[in-house]
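Chain X:
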Amino acid sequence: MSIEYERLAAMSDGAPPRRVLLLGGARSGKSLAAETMAARASLLTGGGPVTYVATAEVRPDDPDWAARISAHRDRRPPTWHTVETADPAPALAGGGVVLVDCMALWLTRAMDDAGAWDDGAWATTAPADLAERVNALITAWAESPGTVIAVSNEVGMGVVPATSAGRRFRDELGRLNVRLAAAADEVYLVVAGRLLPLADAAEG
């Protein structure tokens, strides 16, 4: 796989953008596209290592989830440095090439920490607690000195969630994606493995 990464990276020229956001549905190919971009960016900036920030929570009692995480790990070149964390900010502040996969899973954990799934907590303190975490992430994303590539899910085009918690997650993820995109240099929607560049609404 590392040879394939190098071949794809060699096909591109020019300096990589500082912040790239890739949005897509499940199994859309967004993670593979982000990994290819990270490999390309690494070569274009002198071949330094890529820091891969994995925001997924390990679930030992879920074999399917464990298999998905294992597949992602096996696909990364051995030279990449993996950080498994619910707080990407320190890695974003470190410079170099950073890939965060994914923001939707980060939001899930942030909502866990803020108690935002509970209707009662959402009516009181949870919105402010969640906003504080989101603001810190957006600041780290916008101020990162390196090349940052982030993956996030696009969940606003499907079935309306049946629960209030599900709708809350959909809405908060949509708002998070809007803010990430506003601070990004490039934004893509990934569909069936194809990257569709998204223009700024103000430009259209």
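Chain Y:
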Amino acid sequence: MEVLEVAENLQLIPIIEAHATDLYKVVDKNRTYLRQWLPWLDQQKSTLDSQAFARAAHQRNAGGEGFIQVIFYQGRLCGVSGYNFIDHSNRWGEIGYWIDQQHQGKGIVTRSVAAQVTHGFTRLNLNRISISVATGNSASRAVPERLGFSFEGILRESEWLYDGYVDHALYARLKSDPPPSSGLHAEHADNALNTDTNTVPQPSS
């Protein structure tokens, strides 16, 4: 699997088990912050849980069922972004992402997702890419909106989030769609974000 060189100080690296220790540290440090919109925090109780996730994600990558990457900014792991699911028969993939709270506001997720969209259309031969985000998570919804995705509707009670269901906003982009009207591309996407916490790649998601 390819490393995506998004910018001089920003890389997307296919996840492997060796990332588990640093990944767990970031998750544990951001536990309260991430819990606002991500349903899997209670499943991550130790480095062993992150190892299990990394191992399963790596196997999905190797089998072509996903393309899950860790985000490295200035040489440090700060989040996860990638294709949770790839349907090769229908040439469709779904992207999820999250980032360390201290790294928000730098455009890291927007640039990362832009690079993964380009990779999906040009290297993975996808025709459709979707992003599903809790309706109340306005900052994460801003990512597909910046990148020229079309809003396709509301998925009612799509996800159980600890004590109740949340609706999801569904966004999608086709290979034939025009580029974003803002002219935003991976190398120029530097708009600030408040949070970037879409449903992340986890074996259960």
